[in-house]
Amino acid sequence: MANESRPCPCDIGDRFDYGGLGQEVQVEHIKAYICKPPAGTDKAIIVIHDIFGWQLPNTRYIADMLTTNGYIAICPDFFVGQEAWKPSNDWASFDDWLKTRDAGKIDKEVDVVLKYLKDQCGAKKIGVIGFCWGGAAVQHLMLKNPHLKTGVSLYGVIRRFADKHSLLHPTFFIFGEKDDIIPLEQVTLLEQKLKQNCKVDYEVKIYPGQTHGFVHRKREDINPQDKPYIEEGRKDMINWLNKYL
């Protein structure tokens, strides 16, 4: 469990050796990674990175996976030029670092990205996915942004929005059974609150034996016991997006 010296034991896991199929672009005041499918589409996904930032190869790998499934995928720098967390950083400074990077204060950047996707990419149906810090950001957006159609929150830190559950759009929540950052009792409480307050379609799914970050920070080829769950999580994510976009 998290302790005072390590308030968020967010292991970077397996850092992929991956270059990416897309390109970096400037979207007003934000840098972003974007990848487009060969065939034109009006469907796009905003990918919200975790604490390790928009340049993490693992996150670009997932963005490219979305593109191979027919979506424009864009991963903006939601830290807006501020440094991402490094595994070598002192965890004692994590809370102070996080104070200047609020997952609930990304609306300005999201509006800029939505305008870019509509005006420059021809997107009409736009969803969002996010990991860890980005997963919390997804929940925030699903509570208030009318322009997004659906969202997938992957191990989003629940305590960020523990008292807010009236989602505007269908939302899929992915959690690992063995996640040290998000205890199962928090997941159970989230389910109860959604059942009481949520008027749209949602699903909360727990993947057996999986730790924080399993969908994008574990390599299938060196985690054979986890491979079925990594693949299942990715497939479930795509299926949810396909259903609502």
From TrEMBL:
One of its GO terms (cellular component) is cytosol. Pfam families: DLH. SUPFAM superfamilies: alpha/beta-Hydrolases. It is found in: Cytoplasm, Cytosol. Keywords: Cytoplasm. Residues 30-245 form the Dienelactone hydrolase domain. GO terms for molecular function: hydrolase activity. Belongs to the dienelactone hydrolase family. This is Carboxymethylenebutenolidase homolog.
